[in-house]
Amino acid sequence: MEIMRKELPKYGGTFVQCEDEIASVSMAFGASYGGRVAVTGSSGPGIALKSESISWGVMAEMPLVIVDVQRGGPSTGLPTAVEQSDLNIAMYGGHGDSPALCLQLPAWKTVLQCH
Length: 115
Known about the structure:
Elements: H1 2-7, H2 21-33, E1 39-42, H3 44-59, E2 65-68, H4 85-92, H5 108-114
Parallel strand pairs: 1-2
């Protein structure tokens, strides 16, 4: 987050840190509505909080990039259990028939190669 705060202005971008997950996805949709390329991110529990706004965005056909940084397990991570719940909520977390394009990268090396 600190790197993006410094780098985005160099490329004409704007970095905004919101007070919570719901505000961040709503503000990103506002930027998208205003014609900007908008990105927001979180982990599994945060994506669950954003799901109602994400469903609205799908209904309104608002373009938005959402980065889901998966934890090792539900809620708190590895101390509880290991599962793929982040992928499940990314694919099926919307209300009703909410089509979503989900891209899963196999490793950080691949992420760095995309840059």
